[in-house]
Amino acid sequence: MPGNTFGQLFRISTWGESHGESIGVVIDGCPAGLPITAEEIQKELDRRRTGQSKVTTTRKEPDRIRILSGVFQGKTTGTPLAMMVENADADSSKYELIKHLYRPGHADFTYDKKYGFRDYRGGGRSSARETVGRVAAGAIAKKLLARRKIKVFAYTRQIGDLVMQSFSQKEIENNIVRCPDKKMAEQMVQAILQARKDGDSLGGVIEVVAKGVPAGLGEPVFDRLDADLAKALMSLPAVKGVEVGIGFEAARLRGSECNDVFIAKNGKITTKTNNAGGVLGGISNGNDIVLRMVVKPTSSINREQDTVTQKGRKSKIRVEGRHDPCVAPRAVPMAEAMVALVLIDHLLRQKQAQL
Amino acid sequence: MPGNTFGQLFRISTWGESHGESIGVVIDGCPAGLPITAEEIQKELDRRRTGQSKVTTTRKEPDRIRILSGVFQGKTTGTPLAMMVENADADSSKYELIKHLYRPGHADFTYDKKYGFRDYRGGGRSSARETVGRVAAGAIAKKLLARRKIKVFAYTRQIGDLVMQSFSQKEIENNIVRCPDKKMAEQMVQAILQARKDGDSLGGVIEVVAKGVPAGLGEPVFDRLDADLAKALMSLPAVKGVEVGIGFEAARLRGSECNDVFIAKNGKITTKTNNAGGVLGGISNGNDIVLRMVVKPTSSINREQDTVTQKGRKSKIRVEGRHDPCVAPRAVPMAEAMVALVLIDHLLRQKQAQL
Amino acid sequence: MPGNTFGQLFRISTWGESHGESIGVVIDGCPAGLPITAEEIQKELDRRRTGQSKVTTTRKEPDRIRILSGVFQGKTTGTPLAMMVENADADSSKYELIKHLYRPGHADFTYDKKYGFRDYRGGGRSSARETVGRVAAGAIAKKLLARRKIKVFAYTRQIGDLVMQSFSQKEIENNIVRCPDKKMAEQMVQAILQARKDGDSLGGVIEVVAKGVPAGLGEPVFDRLDADLAKALMSLPAVKGVEVGIGFEAARLRGSECNDVFIAKNGKITTKTNNAGGVLGGISNGNDIVLRMVVKPTSSINREQDTVTQKGRKSKIRVEGRHDPCVAPRAVPMAEAMVALVLIDHLLRQKQAQL
Amino acid sequence: MPGNTFGQLFRISTWGESHGESIGVVIDGCPAGLPITAEEIQKELDRRRTGQSKVTTTRKEPDRIRILSGVFQGKTTGTPLAMMVENADADSSKYELIKHLYRPGHADFTYDKKYGFRDYRGGGRSSARETVGRVAAGAIAKKLLARRKIKVFAYTRQIGDLVMQSFSQKEIENNIVRCPDKKMAEQMVQAILQARKDGDSLGGVIEVVAKGVPAGLGEPVFDRLDADLAKALMSLPAVKGVEVGIGFEAARLRGSECNDVFIAKNGKITTKTNNAGGVLGGISNGNDIVLRMVVKPTSSINREQDTVTQKGRKSKIRVEGRHDPCVAPRAVPMAEAMVALVLIDHLLRQKQAQL
């Protein structure tokens, strides 16, 4: 069973390799009648694209989106919506030199094991470039959610040891690390630049919030909303952990501290606290959905590392491609896209819960 | 799209409610020819069953498994393998009294929102009792894995503030909290008993390890092995976070610290460290798979809590059913089952990767 | 990928063997709030059960349905609805004698090839007994359809050379072959009894009609309504062909004869004729859905036939179990069930077509 | 649940509209390591393309295939294989004139009902042009099958009243109607040209044969090989019926005539006759798979027909686009593609049947 498709009712399938001629996505299950333009999608892609700031890779991909099908007279038709982006600035020469070596932290070795060989140029299919399709599809998911007054946004919470100390939503897109704490953002930028200078990289934590999600989304018992969200985020490159609401902190709490007590507010039932992160028994409870994911420090670093050749001989490697010294800033729109995709999928699934 | 089915090629569907007449599971996709007995499955169920020790709920469910189909002359036939357990000790009387109240931390409110009404007896479908079917199916998955020399085991790593300090695998099943650190296990038992005495409950962290997993399992880009594992664990009751390998610690590391350097060992390529937790680019690399999940403190506590009625009126609730003061000990076999189910599924999926 | 599940949103999974201890079905995706009783389901099972008349097998299965989960206070809860029937009158002795022989027309040989061995008692999983679960699930599908004023019924159109000449709907359930032509029904009964006397069997054609189906059901391009219906009927035992509307007759017509001209009737757009059988481009057009399926003559006949042993040695076989001399009469409720299951599935799927 | 994807393990998703900028397909699940070139795929597309002979539509689509991903160094990588064809000769002007009218026999009305509006140019998504993606994917399926010595071919058996009387396989691609009976082929050509002259169209019957299929393919009980084949063929445009082996003729036979007696031949178990068409109990038995499908006469005819407007007012329509007067000749490669896709899917699925 192939694994390049995500979602049940709003279903996306991505295709393409880092240095192939193009990459893309097909959405199946987008309801008919949604007004959509390439420009709206482009906006989201621009937030994820390379070369957008001094803390990202210098590969220059304009990532111009083309809508190939599924839109007629400016509206979705209900039939598959295919989108494509050309790979413009792929430089495979660096990869020719190291094609017999396994880059630490990368999928070179595991792809060889799985498929018997691999497209070694830029990581091939395992490249984060694949997420172009996710973000493009996520832009449409976000637009659908907006019609239901649901808003998804994410931000950088932590980079290395630096953890945000204050929160200002409007600050997020005002700085190049996408941190809601302006002061901390500046320190994060410096830390990233220093890491790059050191031929090294940094990890981080992204937080995602969805506001306006109605109670009732999520399918017990396996396709719980939080289980699907966990899978969605964990399927992003470099992610090593996901938590919802109070998360790992829950281990240290007692039930009387962790339980969110029910209250009535403006005639609506809600909870006093939101340790649950908006999900009870796998189903949304109407509160904000709150999730966090950790991204490991970029595996490609500009310094010599030990490794082996495909044949298992000891060797040294220096990965000279163009890389993000920290993936967090560009992972923010990716995380938003994945959460938006899960939410729209479950909104559609919820339609059949009752007669 | 209904959500009571898990897996693609080794596919399980669970059914049943906490206080219904019985609960069960249907496995579709189990290869033909596997010798299996009810006793082997029973063993795993006994590890998850209620009333097994002084730190678990006092509900006494014998959980005798019946194999209804799919086995002939002691071997699986390749056709659906249905299993069932009767609910013997369901006592719904306590739930009649609180059926109009929403228990904090539980799915009462969200099920009402999703379905319009709910089976309020013992939590109905949202009860952890549903995991009987998972553990039964997991027993078969484990047996299939054992034929490939793959072994999955889990243990309690943390309860409240108590974190294990040493590891002895044989110790795990020797104590009732399933902690590989004998000394810490004793403290954990005391802490749980104290919490129950206080009318309260404790959270914890479970670690799962899979040994012998061959390199090559996992389907890029969405059905990554770690993404499917994250979903599997997050779909268990009370779980609020999942991490693989180094997990959230990765945020604080630099690439040069986090990368697992490739080495050759006995003619086989492996890595020097295992920060990755056995997964690179979503595909197993032949190292131990290492995961952790956090369980929140049991929501049902034997003390008065604020809440509201279904109509939103303020009220008080005391949940008097029989509950585990900490779900960690019984969550150990559940976590093993889920990881085993994901692994066998991906082993089958891997068969088609190459010509 | 296992094949014992049918449907996307209203999804059924059947399990069980002909001579196992019981057989059953799990429905996942039934909306919450539908009032349902075991009696309503029993009614449909009684139409399919063995021993109901002199033209069916003499195996006496009461087929008492038990609802195991998914119904609370008389209404569906939205969670999996499991149902089970015990196998009461299984007599495996006849099968012991022929377990090394391949019965012509049966799946003995192919199951051996697929799975390496087989449950030879009564055909095991390949027995038409498996359809108990389908008919039980179909009863619920029918009830859901009835709320939308959709009615599905089927009847025997042909047995051997005898083709119905007139149509009276109320006649269908008045005779034991379920033919809407009373006179022809009598001849059909005689033909069946004669065939049994001859140690032989007869084939037939079943027609299924669905009335009240709204326009718009069916998903282009693969999950067309007619494609899903074709699969549904072809998945029934003994079916060798399916046609919709004008069917194979279309080969001989010209476009000007075959096209159904659009007209307006009572302010509603419809077509003058219904050669299409209610489906245009894979989507229902509001007309009656009309389908036919052919069932081959029962493979088990009470006379000596040539065959081979499992090792390929020449042998003779006489199949002495209890069999229907013609499967058509009991195939009528099976066909209705399958069509009802497809329709309810597509009704649910249609909910997402538009914003 | 969207319906533009076909197959479980070898999974294709088509996208695109008749007059959009391009159309395409994504294959997910193609094993790694298959050598494949665009030329091999082009060959199959050339058999399906418009304007290939005097009996097809005059729309001139070169249908040049581009492989966008999933192939590296001439071999499949195991990751999604995306392919695309530009729409070159789309002329939408004729459709502007009739966009408010419902063409009899077409999906205009049903798409409006389903989606609220439609891309009316050339039938949009409902156009047979969508099958470009199927045939391209089918070419790869055929190549995979060839490695297992499985060969799929189809031919025109009947057009109007003209039924083939002799069979010569090499004749099939020697005439423009793809009939294995040379003499009859000539008559068929004349009949089609006459129908076009009359402003009318003809229906026909296609037969598909798969040779070399091993015993054991097909998943009981729903995903039977014949059920999946029936769905595959029924999902092609204009198909109104499907039969396997003896097909509808089975209604008239007795069991003693219809049963295929088992024999041993060259140490291999097979059957004396092949009324079953190669499938027993939904599983292949090693014989030739034999199927037939009927295609209705092309709905677009060059004469005035009654119809209604979108608002339901009486009107007349003359469909002036460029159309095949009989779809059978071009449906031959489409039918082959669909059967090849089902077979490769079930070959992959069969890998997990036994330990």
Automatic annotation (TrEMBL), chains A, B, C, D:
The UniProt record gives the binding positions of NADP(+) as 48, 54
Give residues annotated as binding FMN: 125-127, 281, 296-300, 322
Q: Which UniProt keywords apply?
A: Amino-acid biosynthesis, Aromatic amino acid biosynthesis, FAD, Flavoprotein, FMN, Lyase, NADP
| Claim: Secreted is one of the keywords in the record | no
Which GO cellular component does the record give, naming just one? cytosol
Q: What EC number(s) is this enzyme filed under?
A: 4.2.3.5
CDD domains referenced in this protein's UniProt entry, alphabetically: Chorismate_synthase (cd07304)
Query: What GO biological process term is on the record, naming one?
Result: aromatic amino acid family biosynthetic process
Paste the cofactor note.
Reduced FMN (FMNH(2)).
Question: What GO terms are given for molecular function?
Answer: chorismate synthase activity; FMN binding
Task: Tell me if Metal-binding is a UniProt keyword of this record.
Answer: no
- What is its EC class? lyase
Q: Which InterPro entries match?
A: Chorismate_synth (IPR000453), Chorismate_synth_AroC_sf (IPR035904), Chorismate_synthase_CS (IPR020541)
In which pathway does this enzyme or protein participate?
Answer: Metabolic intermediate biosynthesis; chorismate biosynthesis; chorismate from D-erythrose 4-phosphate and phosphoenolpyruvate: step 7/7
Q: Which reaction does it catalyse?
A: 5-O-(1-carboxyvinyl)-3-phosphoshikimate = chorismate + phosphate
Q: Which cofactor does it need?
A: FMNH2
Function description: This reaction introduces a second double bond into the aromatic ring system.
How it assembles, according to the record, is: Homotetramer.
What family, per the record? Belongs to the chorismate synthase family.
> Which protein is depicted?
Chorismate synthase
Query: What gene does this protein come from?
Result: aroC
